[in-house]
Here is the input.
Amino acid sequence: MRIGLVPGSFKPYHAGHDGLVAIASRENDIVKLFVSLGDRVKPGEFPLYGKRMREVWDRFLKDAVERTYPNVEVIYATKAPVTHVYEELKLGDGGDDEYVIYSDDEDILKYTDATLMKAAPNLFTNGMITRRGVKRTETVNISGTYMRGLLAAGETEEFSQLLPASVRRNAQEILDILRGTTMGESLLRTYVRLSLKC
Here is the structure.
């Protein structure tokens, strides 16, 4: 079998990530999507907390991804997603399965010959591990940094349009969860926005 391994923080999971998963789904028999649930808190960026992302994955994304791509399994990473990739390769070392690691065309360079050889010497020596760097131009040219910027700026409409198509109808709920907004705050904000248009 050909097994795709897709690790990422996915904070937040957007249309570009979904495009990468679509490519992996087409090119493999099985795809394991390793999703980080750690916090992403950096100075000058909108903070995204693992607990909130877990709620978004549980309520909307996990089912949508697995329904859209039936050969994809979403796996919540208990460690860094990259660590799960190496563990998966270690488990498969000595077997007959081929593995393809997916990431953007810059991050894929982190999977060096030396680290792959150390993790799975038999697979590596036999040419059964492929690194597949995916350019943003192959999917949707969007970054997590840009999406977090939209969240911080309150650009609800553009943020919603850059979510995977399968969850756009849930965009407001996803935004509220990521922002930590209560339903009352969300309704009040909508009321004020509509009032100002009158």
The mean pLDDT is 92. The chain has one domain: 2-197. The two ends are 59 Å apart (CA to CA).
